Amino acid sequence: MTTQAPSADTLHRLERLQRLRELKLQEAGSAVAAAPLQPKQQQAEDLAGQADELLFGGAAGGGKTHWLISHAARQCEQHPGNRVVIFRRVFPSLARSVIPRARAMLAGRARYNDARHVFEFSNGSVLELASLQYARTA
Ligand SMILES: Nc1ncnc2c1ncn2[C@@H]1O[C@H](COP(=O)(O)OP(=O)(O)OP(=O)(O)O)[C@@H](O)[C@H]1O
Ligand SMILES: [Mg+2]
């Protein structure tokens, strides 16, 4: 069996499809990012300003990650030069869930630096995604 290299035309179409997919994701992400906070998320938002530590538990799909990303982004936008880090235990779980979600939600608000896993805001703030497997390495 022989395999043929895809033609330039096919590659061009694939690129356009990929771009369309990204635009759709961004559109969906912006709409979700602009959606009002759910009651539990609003409660977390109100408490966050008064606490050093905040525990946000609850059911799977309860909106924890969404609130965390939107809160971190608000903190970055409100305070120029701010540095915020979101940790997961291992990097694959960031790559699987948090990073694509944050990229969609923050499209047009921050530039994502793929090599450093950092969102850069125009006011100098940065939101970093990092893994922290062992407490003793913190
Ligand atoms: N305020 C909101 N407005 C619109 N959609 C929302 C809102 N909060 C969360 N969602 C959507 O609800 C779904 C579940 O939210 P999310 O992933 O943040 O929950 P989670 O608590 O982190 O879930 P898990 O425990 O599985 O990690 C996602 O598709 C998210 O986009
Ligand atoms: Mg989550």
What's this model, at a glance?
The chain has helices at residues 8-34, 39-48, 64-78, 91-105, and strands at residues 83-88, 111-113, 118-120, 126-131.
What features would you describe in this structure?
The protein starts with 7 loop residues before the first helix and ends in a 7-residue tail after the last strand. The chain has one domain. The longest helix has 27 residues, at 8-34. Helix 1 packs across helix 4 (91-105). A hairpin with a 4-residue loop joins strand 2 (111-113) and strand 3. Helices cover 49% and strands 13% of the residues. The chain has helices at 8-34, 39-48, 64-78, 91-105; strands spanning 83-88, 111-113, 118-120, 126-131. With 138 residues, the chain is α+β, with helices and mostly antiparallel strands. It has a four-stranded mixed β-sheet, covered by helices on one side. The protein contains four helices and four strands, in the order αααβαβββ. The protein binds adenosine-5'-triphosphate and magnesium ion. Adenosine-5'-triphosphate binds next to helix 3.
